[in-house]
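go over my protein:
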Amino acid sequence: MTDIDRAAPRRRLPVITGILVLIALAILISLGTWQVQRLHWKEGLLADIAARQAAGPVPLADIEAMAASGGDIEYRKVTATGRYINNKERHFFATWRGQTGFYVYTPLELADRRFLFVNRGFVPYENKEPEMRMQGQLTDQQTVRGLARAKLPGKPSSLVPDNDVAKNIFYWKDLDVMAESVGLEKGRVIPFFVDADSTPNPAGLPIGGVTQVDLPNDHLQYAFTWYGLAAVLVIVVAISWFRKSGKQPAQ
């Protein structure tokens, strides 16, 4: 093998390494830029949610019209009037301020004989059954104030347990199944939920106002991480190049 043949692989190696470094650098910069874009999106979303919560409540019909047109109804204040159908309440497994229990979803029968599932709030595990909180089972006409919550398109994750309809324990809010399990026709059920506000209930149960608007915004930190890794890669490559250059024998 000649000296030229032996030198060829050594010449190709820096070229391959350079290509790999450029690919890695492009990926890191792309990830950083994507996080910056996500940051702007999240800041806009948080500002929008804050504006919705600061606005006054609107009638249920306004939220219905918005939902029907494809608008975003999440966290918009709304009012609705009707009578709770207490014997059809559904229970969503939840924790509230460190305590295990359930959110109570009760159909509110409206004047037009349709139904709106209202998250009336939290009850401790031992108060799951209505007999343990009879004072809170309101029977006369009620005006509910709260936040509109969109219907989930499907199970959020494969890690979420399946709903146990027989035991009336829901691990994700499947509105269609909630309605079907208590004999309500899908066409007569409003296609979203309402989370009731913190207006006190008799005997304190359910505890209203349980909506948690806690959207983490760590995108700036992630952006710095990806850009920082890109900078470190450039520095490492530059140091390596200068060291190799300094070791080159004089011609």
